[in-house]
Specification:
Layout lengths: L3 E4 L4 E2 L2 E2 L3 E4 L7 E5 L10 H7 L4 E4 L11 H12 L2 H9 L2 E3 L3 H4 L11 H11 L7 H4 L6 E5 L6 E5 L10 E2 L2 H8 L6 E2 L11 H10 L6 E6 L17 H13 L5 E5 L5 E6 L7 E5 L18 E6 L3 E8 L6 E8 L4 E8 L8
Parallel strand pairs: 5-6, 6-7, 9-12, 12-13, 13-15
Antiparallel strand pairs: 1-4, 2-3, 5-17, 8-9, 10-11, 14-15, 14-16, 17-18, 18-19
Helix pairs in contact: 1-3, 2-5
C-alpha cells in the first residue's frame, strides 16, 4: 500500500484543530482508491469505518462534501467544522490522504453555477479546510479549484484529475412546467440539453489545462467530476445537458490517443455503473458513488440509457482496485455499503481502456 508522510495542517476550525494528515507520496504504487460524495455533516457518518477497513491509498471527495447551501462564509465554515468533528472522518483524515473537488451544496446553492456571487469566498474556505498550501495553483490562479496528481512509478502510474463543474458553468436549460409534470411519472428531472453554442460547463482556462493534463504520462487516468459524465436521459445535472462540452472532452481523449480513462462521479444519491460507447474513442466507464449519507427514494431512481447492471440506493462509497501484478492489470470497480458489504462490482482489464489498434 502507499506510504505517507505526516504533516500538520495549520487550520483551526470551530471544532478544534484538524488531525495530523498524511500527504501523498507520489513515488509509491497506488492500488486502491476510495471515493464518495454527498455527506451531510448533520447526520451520523458510520460509513467511514467501512472505508478505513479497506486501507485505501487515497480518498477522493467528489462534492457535496458538506451541505451548507449558503453565501455566508461563517455558515460554510461551521458546516466544515461539523464534518471535521465526525469521529469517523477524523480517523480517515489521520490515516489516509484526502483530496477533493466540490459540487453545488458545498460551493453555493442547489444546482448553481457561475452566477454564485460568493464563489471566491467558498473557494477560500474549501481550500483552507482541505489544507491546500499557500503556493498551490489552486489558490494563486483566478478561477476554479481543478487540479491533478500523478502517483506511482513508471508502468504503474495513476493520474487523478479533479475537475470543477461549478465555477464557470452556464445556466441549466429547463423544460416547461407541463413537460416536467409528465416527466415526473418516469422519474426524469427538469433539465435538458442546451442548444446554445456558447454554453459551457468548464471555463476555457480549465479546458486548456485539461488538454495538457491528458498528455501527462500515466497508465490509468481517473477523471473525477462532481456530476455524471456517461449518464444519459436522467433529466438531472449531467454532462449530456452540455453536449458540445461532452463532445469536446471525448475529442480531447481521442485526439491525444489518451488511454486508461475512468470516470468517478457523485451527486445522484444513488450508486451505479455507466458505459459510454457511442462516438467515444473506446468504451468509457463511470462509477457513480452517492451518497455517503444521502439517498434518493428507491421508487424515484432516474433512468439512464447507459446504465450497466443494477443500481444501489443506500449509504455507499466506491473503490477502484488495481492488480498491477498481471501483464494486463485487472481493474475492479466496486460499490460498497456502510457495513463494507459489496453491492456492485465490475471488472476490467487495462487493455479495455484504449482505442482499438
Amino acid at each position: 500500500m502507499l506510504r505517507f508522510i505526516p504533516i500538520l495542517l495549520l487550520l483551526s476550525l470551530l471544532a478544534g484543530c484538524t488531525p495530523v494528515q498524511p500527504v501523498l507520496d507520489a513515488t509509491q504504487p497506488v492500488d486502491m482508491i476510495a471515493f464518495g460524495s454527498c455527506a451531510n455533516q448533520n447526520r451520523p457518518q458510520p460509513i467511514w469505518e467501512a472505508v478505513l477497513a479497506n486501507d485505501p491509498d487515497l480518498f477522493v471527495f467528489l462534492g457535496d462534501n458538506v451541505y451548507a447551501d449558503t453565501d455566508d462564509m461563517d455558515v460554510l465554515r461551521a458546516a466544515y467544522a461539523r464534518l471535521a468533528a465526525q469521529p469517523g472522518f477524523h480517523q480517515l483524515r489521520s490515516r489516509v490522504p484526502v483530496v477533493a473537488t466540490w459540487d453545488d451544496h458545498d460551493y453555493g446553492f442547489n444546482d448553481i453555477g457561475a452566477e454564485h456571487v460568493a464563489k471566491q469566498g467558498s473557494k477560500e474556505v474549501f481550500l483552507d479546510f482541505f489544507g491546500e498550501p499557500a503556493a498551490s495553483e489552486r489558490r494563486t490562479r483566478a478561477g476554479g479549484i481543478y487540479t491533478s496528481y500523478v502517483l506511482g512509478p513508471p508502468g504503474r502510474r495513476v493520474q487523478v484529475i479533479l475537475l470543477d463543474t461549478r465555477w464557470d458553468r452556464s445556466p441549466l436549460t429547463r423544460v416547461s412546467d407541463a413537460e416536467y409534470d409528465a416527466r415526473r411519472r418516469e422519474n426524469v428531472g427538469p433539465y435538458t440539453s442546451t442548444s446554445d453554442p456558447d454554453a459551457r460547463l468548464l471555463g476555457e482556462d480549465q479546458w486548456q489545462w485539461l488538454a495538457v493534463q491528458l498528455q501527462q504520462p500515466a497508465e490509468v487516468r481517473i477523471i473525477a467530476t462532481s456530476i455524471p459524465f456517461a449518464q444519459e436521459g436522467t433529466g438531472w445535472e449531467i454532462w449530456a445537458n452540455f453536449p458540445a462540452e461532452r463532445r469536446r472532452l471525448l475529442d480531447l481523449i481521442a485526439a491525444g490517443e489518451t488511454a486508461g480513462v475512468l470516470f468517478i462521479t457523485g451527486d445522484t444519491h444513488r450508486a451505479q455503473f455507466s458505459r459510454l460507447a457511442t462516438d467515444a474513442p473506446y468504451p468509457l466507464w463511470e462509477v457513480n458513488s452517492s451518497g455517503l449519507t444521502e439517498n434518493v427514494d428507491p421508487e424515484r431512481v432516474a433512468p439512464d440509457a447507459n446504465r450497466v447492471g443494477d443500481y444501489f440506493v443506500g449509504d455507499n462509497f466506491g473503490l477502484i482496485r488495481i492488480d498491477w501484478s498481471l501483464p494486463d492489470p485487472v481493474i475492479s470497480l466496486e460499490i460498497r455499503g456502510d457495513d463494507d458489504s459489496l453491492k456492485l462490482r465490475h471488472e476490467l482489464r487495462l487493455s479495455d481502456l484504449r482505442a482499438p489498434a
